[in-house]
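Hi all, posting the design record for the shared folder.

TITLE: backbone redesign
STEP: 1 of 1
STRUCTURE INPUT:
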């Protein structure tokens, strides 16, 4: 047998580009797909809810701390005999970060007759 007779003829090499016809998914496959989609949606909603809750809790804590700092500064303010406020020294700041430049905590007070005071951090 030589090489020419062993290879199939060109007519036998027909190829088709059509994909095989598939029927609808089985009931178990459809149930698994629906369950997966519902689970993904549920986990997404839970994740968004937890993220929002943590953000709200963190902002609430910061707001409370800033309110405490404001009250501490107001308690330390005195008024001179001319009615001008005497702001506390940097040693009596409620948080040491108010005394450190570039710390991110700044206190600025503006008042009547051009009164302006800022913490050393500002």
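Okay, here is what came back for every position:
SEQUENCE:
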């Amino acid at each position: 047998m030589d090489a020419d007779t062993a290879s199939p003829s060109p007519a036998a090499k027909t190829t088709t580009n059509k994909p095989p016809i598939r029927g609808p998914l089985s009931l178990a496959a459809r149930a698994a797909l629906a369950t997966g989609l519902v689970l993904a949606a549920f986990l997404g909603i839970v994740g968004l809810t937890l993220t929002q809750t943590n953000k709200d809790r963190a902002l609430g804590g910061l707001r409370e701390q800033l309110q405490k700092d404001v009250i501490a500064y107001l308690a330390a303010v005195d008024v001179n005999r001319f009615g001008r406020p005497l702001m506390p020294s940097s040693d009596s700041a409620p948080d040491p970060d108010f005394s450190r430049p570039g710390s991110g905590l700044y206190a600025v007070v503006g008042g009547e007759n051009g009164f302006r005071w800022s913490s050393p951090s500002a």
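COMMENT: The chain has two helices and four strands.
Let me know if anyone wants the other runs.
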